[in-house]
């Protein structure tokens, strides 16, 4: 959330990324990211409710709202499970 220091920007320009730029899958993912995002994260979740007669606004609300809530709960579950079942070396 902060601007990069000018030294960091200069050093970042010197990093050799030729191995990544020569990889077909990496560059295809970079090139087609927005297209696949729209298809997989927007159209695919909205499609099934609309196919069963739901309106566009309801489909958008249900898919995005519940996906967001589900995503947050899974994130918190992982954190809680890690604290509950993980090893705690700081306790004797």
UniProtKB/TrEMBL annotation:
Keyword Endoplasmic reticulum in record: no
Subcellular location: Membrane
Membrane topology category: Multi-pass membrane protein
InterPro entries attached to this UniProt entry: Acyl-CoA_DS (IPR015876)
Positions in coiled-coil regions: none
Protein's recorded name: Uncharacterized protein
Membrane spanning stretches: 32-52, 58-78
Family from the record: Belongs to the fatty acid desaturase type 1 family.
Keywords: Fatty acid biosynthesis, Fatty acid metabolism, Lipid biosynthesis, Lipid metabolism, Membrane, Oxidoreductase, Transmembrane, Transmembrane helix
Main localization (coarse): membrane
């Amino acid at each position: 959330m902060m601007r990069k220091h000018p030294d960091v920007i200069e050093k970042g320009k010197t990093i050799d990324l030729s191995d990544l730029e020569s990889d077909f899958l990496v560059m295809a993912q970079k090139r087609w990211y927005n297209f696949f995002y729209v298809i997989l994260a927007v159209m695919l979740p909205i499609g099934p409710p609309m196919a069963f007669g739901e309106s566009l606004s309801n489909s958008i609300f249900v898919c995005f709202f519940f996906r967001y809530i589900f995503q947050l709960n899974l994130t918190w579950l992982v954190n809680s499970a890690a604290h509950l079942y993980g090893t705690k070396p700081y306790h004797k």
